[in-house]
Amino acid sequence: MSDNRELVIVSLYPRDMNIYGDRGNVLALARRARSQGFEPRVVEVNPGDPLPEQIDIVLGGGGQDSGQGRVAEDLLLRADALRARADDGTPMLMICGLYQLFGHRFLTHDGAELTGIGVLDVETRGGDERMIGNIVVESDEFGEIIGFENHSGDTVLGPGSLPLGRVVSGAGNNPRDGVEGARTGNVIGSYLHGSLLPKNPAISDFLIGEAARRRYGSFEPVAGEDPTAARARAAAKSRPR
Ligand code: GLN
User: In what helix (H) or strand (E) does residue 113 lie, and over which residues does it extend?
Assistant: First the structure.
């Protein structure tokens, strides 16, 4: 048994919402938490499963519209619980399909309306244009963020969320606004797959740091540079869209 301090990572809907390597976020976060001196415990929560009592970080991935349809009803049943945790500062990262469902609603291309839980002040419509390829975003807090986007959802931010960053190359939330993702408190939504966290350890450290401060009162980063991440970032950045 390790003496390291535990961090409970909830992986939300890994069965239905795990596309373009989003499960890699769970693996990368757990690994980074270990190198920051914590003992990660991953709890997978699929529709119908209980949420654990202790939750330190919540991760969610993307999926097809059909996958979003399968989880949307279950997510609504958890809306109050997740909103309370978000209001309380629990760090969360939601990618693509779950980013859309953490907003107010997603109006699909077929005219269906999926109601979201409104943790992020965003609204999404299925558009005619597919936004696909490697994407580079500049953010004040995390520096340059690099990932891969593939969505036709067109997302617009309301005043209750800030963008995650400014698009340097790629589309981001939509083809017009020049911004990517959303942030309300410690909840981040983003279109970036790839997976995101293996290429962006600064975001892992944010999630771990906020979680550790809430649960244990302090966080001293010890993990340092990640040379594999640096190589992956350079490779993704050099590839044309
Ligand atoms: N179905 C959504 C869209 O295309 C989400 C896609 C995804 O998660 N990659 O906008």
Answer: strand 113-115
217-234 confidence digits (pLDDT tens): 999 999 889 999 999 999
Q: Output Rg (C-alpha) for the chain, integer angstroms.
A: 17
Residue 62 CA, closest ligand 1 atom number: 8
pLDDT tens readout for residues 180-202: 999 999 999 999 998 999 999 99
Name residue, tokens 């939504």. 189
In words, the CATH class of domain 5-238 is alpha beta
Q: Tell me the whole-structure pTM to 2 decimals.
A: 0.97
CA distance 64 to 215: 35
Q: What's the rounded mean pLDDT across residues 8-22? A: 95
The residue whose CA has the least distance to atom 8 of ligand 1 is 62
**CB-side neighbour CA atoms (13 Å) of 44:** 11
Question: SS3 for 31?
Answer: helix
User: Is 109 part of the annotated catalytic residue set?
Assistant: no
CA-closest residue to ligand 1 atom 4:
151
